[in-house]
Design a protein that fits this description.
The chain is mainly beta and 119 residues long. The chain is built from one helix and ten strands. β6 and β7 form a beta hairpin. The chain starts with a strand and ends in a 5-residue tail after the last strand. Bound molecules: zinc ion.
């Protein structure tokens, strides 16, 4: 079973910083339009496992599709750091772009295919 660890991370220019706790057991490899075009790989966290440490004032919100997922981008460097949304049962969830975790090696993560294009 993967270890639960605390990670730090942020956007490219460094204005947006976060801390999160996750086992990275489920990381998406999704074929939807935004994940494909932006190269996004998400892991999903309870809001209590994610703390924005800096940059709340530079975040820009990007909404599309049914506007259910609120993507949060750094207004300066454009990196999509995380998104806020709701699970099917209505619980709040944070979708974290794992590429924003400090020192992450994408090639070492186990990815779970998600057929977002056809949902
Ligand atoms: Zn930035």
């Amino acid at each position: 079973m993967p270890d639960v660890r605390t990670f730090t991370g942020g956007c490219h220019c460094g204005q947006v910083r976060f801390e999160c706790t996750t086992d990275l057991a489920m990381v998406t490899a999704c074929n939807c339009s935004i994940c494909t075009k932006k190269g996004l790989h998400f892991t999903f966290l309870a809001p209590t496992s994610f703390q924005l440490r800096a940059g709340g004032d530079v975040l820009k919100e990007y909404l599309f599709n049914q506007r259910a997922i609120k993507h949060q981008l750094c207004a300066d460097c454009g990196v999509a750091v995380f998104a806020r949304g709701k699970r099917p049962d209505g619980a709040e969830v944070v979708a974290l772009n794992v590429s924003c975790i400090d020192g992450i090696e994408l090639s070492k993560l186990v990815m779970t295919p998600v057929d977002g294009r056809n949902r």
